Amino acid sequence: MMNASLAARPTAATSTPETGNGAKTCPRCNRQHYAWSQTCDRCRYNALSPDERQIRRRAKWLARRQRISAGGSRVTPAELREIRKSGSCTYCDEASTETDHIWPLSRGGPDTPDNIVPACSRCNRSKGTKLLTEWQRGRVEQGLLASEKIKDEIIRLTWLAADPAP
Ligand SMILES: [Zn+2]
Ligand SMILES: [Zn+2]
User: Which domains does the chain have, with CATH numbers?
Assistant: First the structure.
């Protein structure tokens, strides 16, 4: 009796929408669950494209890592020096004379090495307290080619915009 129309009819005692214990019944698979949405987490996940699934997995991993680093130790002067000397400016490829917090401290970014890249003073001044998605697209695209850290932050920002309540 795996008829699709059966799911829409509240005849079976085990698959009514109101279960009385706070659980919901998923309209796709008919299982009871406690997710915030009517559709269960597994069916929502299965409906995503492979690319979306990968981005979702990476965003969750990043959010977890950033929660850990926010409560962890701050970057040391020696680490800052090392980051500054590790390459040219992430955003324009000129000589780097400073370091930039990709996710600005004033916007809640962590003061940890995975959030800091080498930068020139021109880019640093121009970026200021902007998030990557608020800044010049050309320089952000250069940054994406130059550093995995930039890619991580773009994924974080994109995921937050697409799904504020996962
Ligand atoms: Zn389901
Ligand atoms: Zn620059």
Answer: 4-46 (no CATH), 50-162 (1.10.30)
